[in-house]
Amino acid sequence: MQPNPSKLPTHPPHHKTLKFSNMTQSFISLPQELQLATSAHVKYIQSLDSRKDEYDYWLTEHLRLNGLYWGLTALHLLGHPEALPRAETIDFVLSCQHENGGFGAAPGHDAHMLSTVSAVQILAMVDAFDDLETRGRGKAQVGKYIASLQNRQTGTFAGDEWGEEDTRFLYGAFNALSLLGLLHLVDVDKAVDHIAACANFDGGYGVSPGAESHSGQIFTCVAALTIAGRKDLIDVDRLGRWLSERQIAGGGLNGRPEKKEDVCYSWWVLSSLEMIGKTHWIDKEKLTNFILSSQDTDKGGISDRPGDMVDVWHTCFGIAGLSLLDYPGLEPVDEVYCMPKSTIKRVLGR
Q1: Buried-most residue among 68, 209, 216, 329 (CB within 10 A)?
Q2: Does the keyword Zinc apply (predicted)?
């Protein structure tokens, strides 16, 4: 039997609703290992492109443009946008563009939706859309490439010419096209219908219709609906309950039931809760401590959980999560775009 949404509690019963009027003071009083190691994180991100003699550097070439977005976003939120050279950043991004307008993960790699979205986000953050017009293939060609990946029958999007479809690609298309002012190039209503078809009885969303709910896919669907102005389709209370239940005893969040906590879900879950106005349904202080406990305070970087190796992915989403938690000293992050709010205000005027 499916639960009756009218009987869902205003606040999930197993979570204490916390007040954070003195949250800044509580951060200041944290022990040293639970203070954000800002300078170490900046140096860690700066060092990532200097490891070209390491095997791992070349094993991750297929993530190069995505990694630049993760690192740059973290630096902007840390208040150090100048830590990576702007001119070199723009040069690298443009070197990844193909004639069809799409971007590959690195020079010589095939164009892909995810790399293209990262390229647009990077250029937006460094205020370089003019360079895309004068030195690259131009915004219109990027928009044409993204629009070509929409399945006009179902409304969803493929990642590349080979046809793999996923709600990640749909959200990516909405993200990049809206930043470029070109959302009109795609069938938004058809895409919204597809997202609605991905909704589950528990309020969550899967990768495709009938697939199980997952925190990452929920973010993509909720954010895409937010961009489309269709949050009216979301079962807010049911989804809020499912998301709040992702917090486990140690304070971290997981992606789905019976899984371990992971710092990256500090973004995927928390941003979704922010979009539906339910962040007060989790214990924010415990989540903050979990993220801070997962950082390497000496060498910099944040890992998936305490004691593991750091990487730029978890560093980005850990810092973005802390920004959503109003950690002092961080720039505000936009919960829909995972970019600084200042960038979104400059580009979109909101």
Answers
A1: 68
A2: yes
Residue type, 114: L
pLDDT range class, residue 20, cuts 50, 70, 90: very low
Task: Kindly state the tokens that stand for 92.
Answer: 């690298």
Closest CA to 65 of 99, 85, 92, 101: 92
Residue 123: exposed, middle, or buried by beta-carbon count in 10 A (0-12, 13-18, 19+)?
Answer: buried
9/343: higher pLDDT? 343
Q: Which residue, chain included where needed, has tokens 């690298």?
A: 92
What is the rounded CA–CA span in Å between residue 31 and residue 314? 22
Between CA 216 and CA 268 the distance in angstroms is 5
Coil, helix or strand at residue 287:
helix
Determine how many CB atoms are found less than 10 A away from the CB of residue 138.
Answer: 16
Neighbours of 296 (CB within 10 A): 17
Please count the other Cβ atoms lying within 10 Å of the Cβ belonging to residue 164. Answer: 12
Cα 271 from Cα 333, distance rounded (Å)? 10
Distance (Å, whole) CA 143 – CA 94: 15
Distances in Å between the alpha carbon of 205 and those of 50, 270, 280? Answer: 39, 15, 21
pTM: 0.91
Q: How far is CA 121 from CA 127, 129, 139, 140, 274, in A?
A: 10, 10, 13, 16, 21
The owner of tokens 């969303």 is 205
**pLDDT for position 5:** 36
